[in-house]
Automatic annotation (TrEMBL):
Source species: Phanerochaete carnosa (strain HHB-10118-sp) (White-rot fungus)
The organism's taxonomic lineage, starting at the top: Eukaryota, Fungi, Dikarya, Basidiomycota, Agaricomycotina
Biased composition (Acidic residues): 583-604
Protein name as annotated: DNA 3'-5' helicase
Positions of region (Disordered): 569-628
Superkingdom of origin organism: Eukaryota
Residues binding ATP, per UniProt: A29, G30, P31, G32, S33, G34, K35, T36
Record's compositionally biased regions (Basic and acidic residues): 608-624
Class of this enzyme: isomerase
Family: Belongs to the helicase family. UvrD subfamily.
Segment forming the signal sequence: none
Statement: the UniProt record of this protein carries the keyword ATP-binding: yes
Length: 818
């Protein structure tokens, strides 16, 4: 019997790992205290010491990535076959697996399709188009988007509420008996008049609740008809399966749950029914790290578990093995601001280490390139002890990644995006760019195929394929074909599609004229968003509409930056090009609704002044009306931004800096962590409902750091194309011992305003914290010399000419942020 899996655990961790299998256990502890480590050791202990079959163990993690991580850790302690047999994954994955096998027990068929969030929204969208319902909502002046309905349905499911539960609570709170009648009939069988009559005593909120409940009921019928389950259903049916059929769960007798503080009601029920008979249940969690309240997670589940499983024991781990003392002190000082929080003990086992840095930069661009430079410096000074893959940038929103991706590319620092896509690969960014590409080059078929149906115009893949075939046969561009449909010259298309196509043509035509007039790309994007009502489209169709909208705004920022960077030279417009526009093949025989300068002013767009030089005259020689326009320069820059400079295969092993969001970083750790944009409106997010949850999010982010932690912000930042002044986040500026940083004597108690010195002593400490060999002095010298040679050596120190020196400098820069 091997007990190697217990090696190195401290006394309390040992107790937790060896806790008797059938006594319910909660391991509650702060970040980095080894909760996940103990959970993994406990799994091995159950198998190796208690001789429990691996297939009877069910380990639930919060993300697929976490499951993979746990599998890797287990792979070091168990043989492959055992690891394979353990049921490990997210709650959703676990349910899907069991439902496939035991579908009939809950009255569904095993070949169900999992319907993703997009599909669910489409179903809701269709229901909202029911004429009677539309008419009814119109008369009541109620606007309901697909997004709102979908998330209300999802919230109800997460709470385990059926459509009947919603209707019942509606009737319970109603004062009129007439509502009872409504209940008896199907909502969709009622005419508008009926509804109005029945609901006349309801206020708007009650009416909306009623509509939501009924749409929910109908949505369920549709999913049933399609033999489909949405994500929430996987959990709902999973709970039903396990609670009504205890024999199914008998294989999952030992349940272990990581990140328990972020489970919702249904997930809790699932776990409860699985472990009901065996009572072999272990959960680990930290209320201070609950950051998914916005997704209906309930930290109260900890108390609920103690009620449901009598004699649940608790073990508290109090030693942090992840971070240096000073990083832990900063993190705890941040979360301790939450007065309602229960204080806990968390000791650092590591030395104090260099102080975390908190610094204000004059602008977002200086901030991002300073961070890229600092990463190079740290990697060089640690002489092979640290690589790029030891560094992470943790962002509050994923839209903030654009500036960092760009700065890192410029500095030649390789990056990877964890749990998401690179900025220029995101669907909404590609949609907007595709419109601009057609405006620039109407013959560009890929862009055409991408966006003819964005926003939805009811044009199916088949029609798009036909249009492209016709274009090929006739030697026309897809857009010309579409134009001809619009002009009635291609007869076989149904009138509603014609109308939709006309809309598409109108948008492009409008944009093209403005582009040829020299409207800047930033304004062109704004115009586009307005014309197609892109934000409404996102809200109706995307669950994460906010995040996508922020990405679109960030694209405007990028366009504005390009304008100022390339300046007048590239962003001026050729007079002759504008003339050429009038000869432009694609638009010449259409109605004459050119914009004149006054109209441009009316639209609130500043026009770029025409240029008068040799290049302008060259424009006349070109048939390409859009040559050298600001738009083309912008598109080219965007396309080049997709080139990461890192090529495919050989790149797999290459060390890369991780860029990710604070949410996605949960449970993970890196030696060097940067948290930029620690500003008002970001921490807490301007749209956050619960500021305390935002504070905990910053705490989660800070506690990912092992050796070096940097918090930064900028006193001015470009947002949606406008430069705005920004202030340091109050989560940091009101830290005890860290009053508003300017000139306050003890501001250095927790943070330093300059980067770590990286003296020999500091480097030795860091190597110790990371359990790595102290770097060889000669190697350090070589790397620093190399850095000097390529011109970035002066990063924090001497060279007054260095742009980076505008960054971390003196206490004076604190003024800007506070
Ligand atoms: P989080 O709350 O952030 O998920 P956690 O409590 O799950 O953190 P782990 O990720 O399990 O913490 O552990 C943090 C780090 O500390 C890991 O690198 C782990 O290997 C290390 N660690 C945990 N316990 C010990 C120990 N007894 N001795 C040495 N290192 C340890
Ligand atoms: Mg963990």
């Amino acid at each position: 019997m091997s007990i190697a899996h217990l090696d190195g655990l401290n006394e309390v961790q040992l107790r937790a790992a060896q806790h008797p299998p059938h006594v319910p256990l909660q391991i509650l502890a702060g970040p980095g205290s080894g909760k996940t480590k103990v959970l993994t050791s406990r799994i091995v202990h159950l198998i190796n010491v208690h001789a429990i079959s691996a297939s009877n163990i069910c380990a639930v993690t919060f993300t697929n990535k976490a499951a993979l991580e746990m599998r890797t850790r287990l792979g070091r302690m168990l043989d492959k076959e055992h690891v394979r047999q353990i049921k490990m994954g997210t709650f959703h994955a676990l349910c899907a697996q069991f439902l496939r096998r035991y579908a009939t027990l809950v009255g569904i068929s095993g070949n169900f399709t999992v319907c993703d969030a997009d599909e669910s929204k489409k179903i809701v969208g269709k229901m909202l188009k029911e004429p009677d319902l539309k008419e009814f909502l119109k008369r009541c002046s109620i606007t309901l988007s697909e997004g709102t309905i979908s998330s209300r349905i999802s919230q109800a499911k997460a709470k385990g509420l059926s459509p009947h539960d919603l209707l019942d609570s509606f009737h319970a709170s109603s004062h009129t008996s007439s509502k009872g009648k409504v209940k008896e009939k199907s909502f969709f069988a009622l005419t508008t008049e009926h509804l109005e009559h029945e609901l006349k005593s309801c206020n708007i909120k009650e009416t909306i609740d009623f509509v939501v409940a009924n749409l929910y009921a109908n949505y369920e019928l549709i999913l049933r008809d399609h033999n489909a389950l949405d994500f929430d259903d996987l959990l709902v049916y999973g709970v039903r399966l396990f609670s009504e059929n205890p024999q199914v769960g008998r294989w999952c007798t030992h349940v272990l749950v990581d990140e328990f503080q972020d489970t919702n009601n249904v997930q809790y029920e699932l776990m409860r029914s699985l472990a009901a008979a065996s009572r072999s249940i272990t959960v680990v969690g930290d209320p201070d790290q609950s950051i998914y309240g916005w997704r209906s997670a309930e930290v109260e589940n900890l108390a609920k578990m103690r009620r449901d499983f009598a004699a649940t024991q608790q073990i508290f781990l109090e030693d942090n093995y992840r971070s240096t003392g000073s990083i832990l002190a900063v993190s705890v000082a941040i979360v301790a601001q939450d007065k309602s929080r229960i204080q806990k003990t968390l000791h650092a086992t590591h030395p104090q280490g260099p102080q975390p840095t908190l610094h204000c930069f004059p602008s977002d661009r200086v901030e991002s390139s300073a961070i890229a430079g600092e990463i190079k410096r740290v990697v060089a000074h640690m002489g092979g002890t640290l690589g790029y893959d030891d560094c992470a940038i943790l962002l509050r929103y994923n839209s903030l990644s654009r500036v960092f991706e760009s700065a890192f590319r410029k500095e030649g620092v390789p990056t990877r995006i964890l749990g998401g896509q690179r900025f220029f690969e995101r669907a909404e960014v590609k949609d907007v760019l595709a419109y601009l590409q057609i405006v620039d080059n109407p013959a560009y078929a890929p862009a055409f195929a991408r966006v003819i149906n964005v926003p939805q115009r009811g044009i199916g893949q088949k029609t798009i394929a036909e249009l492209l075939t016709v274009a090929g046969k006739k030697g026309l561009s897809p857009l010309e074909v579409v134009e001809r449909i619009h002009g009635g010259r291609i007869p076989d298309i149904k009138p509603p599609i014609k109308r939709k196509v006309a809309e598409f043509v109108h948008v492009l035509k409008d944009m093209r004229k403005l582009a040829l007039k020299g409207l800047s790309p930033a304004n062109l994007i704004r115009r586009f968003l307005d014309l197609v009502q892109y934000q409404e489209y996102l809200e109706k169709t995307q669950e994460d509409a906010d995040s996508r909208w922020r990405n679109v705004q960030e694209l405007i920022t990028f366009a504005s930056e390009m304008e100022s960077e390339l300046g007048a030279q590239s962003f001026d417009v050729d007079v002759e090009d504008t003339k050429a526009a009038q000869e432009d093949d694609y638009w010449q025989d259409r109605e004459e609704d050119e914009y004149d300068d006054e109209e441009l002013d009316d639209l609130g767009f500043a026009e770029v002044k025409p240029r008068d030089d040799k290049q302008a005259r060259k424009g006349t020689e070109s048939r390409d009306a859009a040559a050298n326009t600001p738009l083309r320069a912008f598109l080219q820059a965007s396309m080049l931004s997709t080139d990461t400079g890192q090529s495919s295969e050989d790149d797999k092993d290459k060390q890369k800096v991780t860029i990710t969001t604070c949410h996605a970083a949960k449970g993970l750790e890196w030696p060097v962590v940067f948290i930029p944009v620690v500003e008002e409106g970001v921490f807490p997010s301007a749209r956050a409902e619960d500021p305390e949850e935002e504070r905990r999010l910053l705490y989660v982010a800070c506690t990912r750091a092992q050796a070096l932690l940097y918090l930064t912000h900028a006193s001015s930042r470009m947002m949606a194309g406008e430069t705005v002044s920004k202030r340091l986040s109050e989560f940091v500026s009101v830290l005890p011992g860290v009053p508003p940083p300017v000139g306050i004597p003890d501001s250095a108690a927790l943070f330093s305003s300059s980067p770590p010195e990286l003296s020999k002593a500091e480097i030795t400490t860091l190597a110790k914290v990371l359990h790595r060999a102290t770097p060889d002095a000669a190697e350090v010298q070589k790397r620093v010399a190399e850095l000097n040679r390529v011109g970035k050596s002066s990063f924090w120190t001497a060279d007054p000419e260095s742009t980076y020196n505008t960054g971390f400098s003196s206490a004076a820069s604190w003024n800007k942020g506070t």
